[in-house]
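step: validate -> pass
step: tokenize input -> pass
step: predict -> running
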Amino acid sequence: MGTDPLFAPIPGADHRDIGGIELDIVPTGTARVKRMIYPPGFRWSTQMKPVAQTDYCMHAHVGFLARGSIRVLFSDGCVEDYVAPCVLSVAPGHDTWVMGDEACVFIEFDFERDTVRRLGIPEKHCHK
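step: predict -> pass
step: emit ->
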């Protein structure tokens, strides 16, 4: 990952490796700020589905994609592509994978299980 500060250790963060994702979590007030590093080749339905034990990721994601590109496939068949740098909001009920050979770095803001309500995210994907 070289000397890119987006990949550097975060002092004071709770560091976890889950399903191939490097996850750093820092609580702030009633929210959390998370840095997630998804390696090239990562796909939620391959690496995380066995961990989550659901057909789709049922968490909402709101944040900033700082590196890389991802594809999101919703349970209704809709597909959205995101290329850094961009802000994204993804409703529950999706599969996601890294596109290309670059790791993705995503900075997420959440309220754990209360993210949908607190941020006003739809409970499931709806076309814009």
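step: describe -> The domain at 12-119 is CATH 2.60.120.10 (Jelly Rolls).
step: cleanup -> pass
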